[in-house]
Design a protein that fits this description.
Layout: E1 6-9, E2 11-16, E3 21-29, E4 35-38, E5 40-47, E6 50-57, E7 68-81, E8 87-99, E9 102-111, E10 120-123, H1 124-127, E11 131-134
Parallel strand pairs: 1-11, 3-10, 4-9
Antiparallel strand pairs: 2-3, 4-10, 5-6, 6-7, 7-8, 8-9
């Protein structure tokens, strides 16, 4: 018998401990392939011969004053097409995500989401074989 998948609502709180972000409100987006975190002032640099990025995050919805500065190794740089059909090159990083009692690694693209309602999108690749989404519910993994 297959293991039962955990449930997610259309929005959930997600922690990114490796980036120093205790929680960010995320939209659970089955239409997006890749997950995305809000990032501003994205600065590439080299560390131990590898490509890294330094960037700021406004982790709180509707708050552009609170900032969390992060550094992460670059996994890739790839074109991403948003819901409006616009394509942009984005840095891709990997980070540990914590949703309720679930912890796993996922790829995240970096994009300025200051004008968007949610500072993070959780895409279907990160959810695959882990979660099932109840589009009529919110915060099934706790606040």
């Amino acid at each position: 018998m297959a293991e039962q998948l955990a449930g997610l609502g259309w929005r959930e709180y997600i922690g990114l401990p490796e980036l120093g972000i205790s929680r960010v409100k995320a939209k659970i987006d089955t239409g997006a392939r890749t997950s995305c975190i809000h990032a501003f002032t994205v600065e590439p640099f080299e560390k131990d011969g590898e490509n890294w990025v330094r960037f700021g995050v406004h982790p709180n919805q509707k708050d552009t004053v609170t900032e969390q500065w992060c550094e992460a190794k670059v996994v890739d740089c790839r074109p991403v097409t948003d819901s409006g059909g616009h394509t942009e090159m984005r840095y891709v990083i990997s980070s540990k995500l914590v949703i309720g009692e679930h912890t796993f690694d996922a790829e995240l693209t970096l994009s300025n989401r200051d004008n968007m309602r949610f500072r993070m999108l959780l895409g279907r690749t990160a959810m695959r074989n882990r979660f099932v989404v109840d589009s009529g519910a919110s915060y099934l993994q706790g606040r």
